[in-house]
Structures are given as structure tokens and as C-alpha cells.
Specification:
The protein folds into two domains: 166 residues, Rossmann fold (3-Layer(aba) Sandwich), CATH 3.40.50.300; 103 residues, GMP Synthetase, Chain A, domain 3 (2-Layer Sandwich), CATH 3.30.300. With 293 residues, it is of the alpha/beta class. A hairpin with a 3-residue loop joins strand 7 and strand 8. Helix content is 34%, strand content 23%. It starts with a strand and ends in a 5-residue tail after the last helix. A six-stranded mixed β-sheet has the order 2-3-1-4-5-6. The chain binds guanosine-5'-triphosphate (GTP) and magnesium ion. Magnesium ion binds next to helix 1. The site of guanosine-5'-triphosphate has 24 residues, from helix 1.
């Protein structure tokens, strides 16, 4: 009998949730950046093996001080992913338990399914001997079904985690075709790949004031993609375009490479920067970007 189940990956921003999901699914379905709050949606990634299928939900990082409607919405979005799943993976960074981790833990109080704790980025830990004590300490914070020191980039303990998840998901028919890796549209992922470059190139608060919308996606000899970069103030537009358009050019060419790799085809990418005053607080604009909860 085959097994089929849903597993949510939750945790504070920047601990490596999207990195782990992409690895488990074997495909880059979720954007990754070395900045908090990269993920804004619950993104499904589907792992199909011979006798089981697991649908992972990569969630936005649950964070404090959520002032804008955007931040409030992504927190709600993350918490909503914890419902109707067969297991939850709570991810923290090895040797670093923060107040935001406590916040995540409190959101898991009423979760009845098995919860696994992952201490990610163990490849960065120098003092392995101290980690054992630390793991024991954090493992006592609630009743976890398992605790895994893990590295999503160096692939330490990822096979063990998969095996533990397969144990707890129910028997049942698969919900997706075996070659499906996500239920996100190609358009959406393309927009995220452009946003990933914004996260990489822009500094301080600016990436959080941007959003990307793919307006055109047309397949001919090459794939032609037109995307709008939304900013929330006029002044931000100039920064993104840069001197003589240099910044936008750099973002565009990195994004094009990522898109070509993802789509396996030549891509012609055109980017525009448009201002929508204070879009982070506009319900209408958030909805049009697909950020809802
Ligand atoms: N050294 C090390 N770095 C890692 C590991 N896993 C992820 N990272 C890095 O941590 C950063 C954040 O990774 P993401 O996967 O975007 O983190 P996230 O939890 O999805 O972040 P949000 O979407 O903002 O909540 C990236 O620079 C990753 O390359 C790991 O096992 N070891
Ligand atoms: Mg993420």
C-alpha cells in the first residue's frame, strides 16, 4: 500500500526552510536568499518515491514586529499552513535559539500531529561537543517526535529525516502525478526567481518594499518574459534602476540566467519598475500579487 501525506516546514526567517524543501523535492521551487523573509507564500513541493508521496509546504518565516499588512499577512499565511497536515517540521539554526523561535513554538502549541525539530546548518557548528548539550536542552521545549541535527546544504541527516517522515504519514493514494514537483504556476516561480535577485542585490530594507509580477510569458523560439518590479515609493525606483540603468541590468541578467536554468530554454527578459504608493499596506495590491490569507 502506498503512503501519502502533507508535511509543513515552519520556523523563523532565514533558518533554511526553502533550502531544505528544494533539496527534498530535488527541484528549485522556492526562492532562497541570505536575508530574512524571502518566502512570502506557502509553497508546495512534491516528493515522489517508489512507495510514498510527501507534499511539503514551505512557509514564510514566522517573525515578530509585523507592522505592515504584508508582514501580518505572511505570518498568518505561515500559521495557516500548520493546519491539516500529517506532520510539522520545526526548523531552527543549530546552537542559536532566539525569541522568534519561541514565537514559532507557541504557534505550534495546538498542533496535534507529530512535530519534528530540526537544528539546521550544523555544518557551521565548530564545537560539536557542545551541540549535544544544546540539543538536549532544546529537545525538552516541547514533546517532539524526533530531533535531527541537519545540514540542508551539506545534506547531513536529510535521508534520516525523510525516513522518519515516511513513518508518520498515513497510507493512501497519491494526490499528484509522480512527475509533478509543485502546484505553483511556472509564471509564479519565474516571478520568484526575479525577486530572489532583488533580495540578493538590494540592501537593507529595500528588498522588502519590492514585489514582482509577471505580466507576459510567451513561448516562441525563445521564452519572452515581461515582469514588473513594484516598489512603494518613487525614490526606490531610482535605486533599483541605478546609475545609467546599471543596477537593473545586473539584476536582469542574473535573473535571466536563473530563468534559463529553470526553464531549460533561452529567455528574453524585460523588466519594468513601477511605483504603487505603500503597496505593502494595500489589500487590493496584495491580493493581486497572490498574497492572501
Ligand atoms: N551553512 C549553511 N547554510 C544554509 C543551510 N541551509 C540554508 N542555508 C543558507 O541560509 C540562508 C537562508 O536560506 P533560506 O532557505 O532562504 O531560508 P528560509 O528559512 O526559507 O528563509 P525565509 O523564507 O526568509 O523564511 C541561505 O543563504 C542558505 O543558503 C545549511 O544547512 N548550512
Ligand atoms: Mg524561505
Amino acid at each position: 500500500m502506498a503512503k501519502f501525506g502533507y508535511v509543513a516546514i515552519a520556523g523563523r526567517p532565514n533558518v533554511g526552510k526553502s533550502t531544505l524543501m528544494n533539496h527534498l523535492v530535488g527541484f528549485k521551487v522556492s526562492a532562497i536568499a541570505n536575508k530574512p523573509q524571502t518566502t512570502r507564500h506557502n509553497i508546495r513541493g512534491i516528493l515522489t518515491e517508489k512507495d510514498y508521496q510527501i507534499v511539503f509546504r514551505d512557509t514564510p518565516g514566522i517573525h515578530k514586529a509585523a507592522k505592515s499588512l504584508l508582514n501580518k499577512t505572511i505570518n498568518l499565511e505561515a500559521v495557516s499552513a500548520l493546519e491539516n497536515v500529517d506532520a510539522v517540521v520545526m526548523m531552527v539554526e543549530a546552537m542559536r535559539w532566539t525569541e522568534e523561535d519561541d514565537l514559532v513554538l507557541s504557534r505550534l502549541e495546538h498542533v496535534n500531529c507529530p512535530v519534528f525539530l530540526i537544528a539546521n546548518k550544523v555544518d557551521k557548528v565548530k564545537k560539536r561537543s557542545e551541540m549535544l548539550n544544546w540539543l538536549q536542552e532544546v529537545a525538552a521545549k516541547r514533546e517532539f517526535s524526533g530531533v535531527f541535527p541537519l545540514s540542508a546544504t551539506k545534506l547531513i541527516n536529510t535521508i534520516e529525516l525523510k525516513a522518519a517522515l515516511v513513518e508518520v504519514i498515513p497510507e493512501g493514494d497519491w494526490g499528484y502525478d509522480e512527475d509533478e514537483v509543485t502546484d505553483q504556476s511556472t509564471r509564479f516561480i519565474c516571478g520568484e526567481l526575479v525577486r530572489e535577485q532583488l533580495m540578493t542585490y538590494l540592501h537593507q530594507e529595500l528588498p522588502y518594499s519590492t514585489a514582482v509580477e509577471v505580466e507576459k510569458f510567451e513561448e516562441a523560439k525563445v521564452i519572452e518574459i515581461h515582469a514588473v518590479i513594484w516598489v512603494s515609493r518613487e525614490g526606490q525606483k531610482g535605486i533599483i534602476i541605478g546609475k545609467k540603468g546599471e543596477m537593473l541590468k545586473r539584476i536582469g541578467s542574473s535573473a535571466r540566467l536563473a530563468l534559463e536554468e529553470f526553464l531549460g530554454s533561452k529567455v528574453m527578459l524585460k523588466l519594468w519598475v513601477r511605483v504603487e504608493e505603500n503597496w505593502e499596506n494595500s489589500p487590493r495590491h496584495l491580493r493581486s500579487l497572490g498574497i492572501t490569507s
